[in-house]
Amino acid sequence: MELRQLRYFIKSAELSNFTEAARTLFISESTLSQQIKQLEIELDTLLFERVRRRVSLTEAGEMFLPYARKTVADSEHAVQRLRDLRNLHTGTLKIGVTFSLGSVLTNSLEKFSQTYPDIKLNIIYRTATELTGLLKTHQVDFVLSYELLHDDDQIESMRLFDSALSVIVHQHHPLAALKRIPLSYINNYPLVLPSVGMNARIILDSVLQASHITLNPQVELNEVNILLQMVRTKHWVTVLSKATIHGDNEMKAIPIQEKGTEMHAALLWLKDGYQKNATREFIRMLMQD
C-alpha cells in the first residue's frame, strides 16, 4: 500500500468521479484507475461501486476512508516536523475560514506571504459546521470561525474578539442614521439574509425565536460577497456579524435591540494535534492584527 494510492482513493471518494479526480491530481485517468484497482486487490475488498461515469463508496470504502485520511495526514505531519526541525520555511498552510470573517485575514495574509514567500497558503471558505468537519478530517490546519455553539472534545478554541450580530446597511441607506434597531423594524425594507446553516443565521434565528419575531426575507444567500454587493446598491438590508464589514467604509453596522446577539470570533484546531511552525507563526500575526 502506497501513500499515493491513498491520496488517489481519498480524492476519488470526495469527487465521486475518477475523471475529475485524475484531472485534479494531474494524472491520467488510467493511472488513477489502475492504482485504485491495485489498492482494492491488496485490501482484498471492493472500495468503489462503478456505475457508468460515477463512482460511490461501498460500505468497506466508507469504513476505510477516515483511516486513509488519518494515514495521509500523519505522514504529512511527520514530514512537517522534520522541516520544522531544520527550520525550512516551505510547504502548504491550509486555513479554513467562515464566510463572514474573510476580511479579518487580509493584513495577516499579506504580511505572512511577504515574510514566508515559499509557504503556499490555501484558504478554504465554508460554513462553520463544514469547517469543523474539514478540521476533523485533517483537510485544514486550523480554522478562523466563531466559538462552537456546543462543546466538542476533539476541538480546542481560542477567542480572538467579540463581534455582535448587527443590521448591515449602506452608509447612505435611510436606516444608517439609527443608533439601535429592533429586528421587527427591518421587515419594512427589502431584506436579504444569509442562508440557513450559516453562523450568523443560526444566531439570528435563535434571537428571533426567543423574541417571537418573524422576518420575511425576499432573498437568502450562502455567499457573503454577493450579499454585500446587494447591500451596496442602497436598496437591501441584511443581518450579519459586525466583523463582516471590517475595513469597509461604505457599510454601516447598526446594533440590534434584542438580546442574544453576541458572537465570538475564535481560532479552532484539533486537540493533541501537531501545530507546525507555519501555523503558530500565522496565528501570532493574526493576533497582532
From TrEMBL:
GO molecular function: DNA binding; DNA-binding transcription factor activity
Keywords, sorted A to Z: DNA-binding, Transcription, Transcription regulation
TM regions (residue ranges): none
GO CC term (a single one): cytosol
Cited Pfam families: HTH_1, LysR_substrate
Domain HTH lysR-type: 1-58
Family stated for the protein in its record: Belongs to the LysR transcriptional regulatory family.
Protein name: LysR family transcriptional regulator, cyn operon transcriptional activator
Organism (species): Bacteroides luti
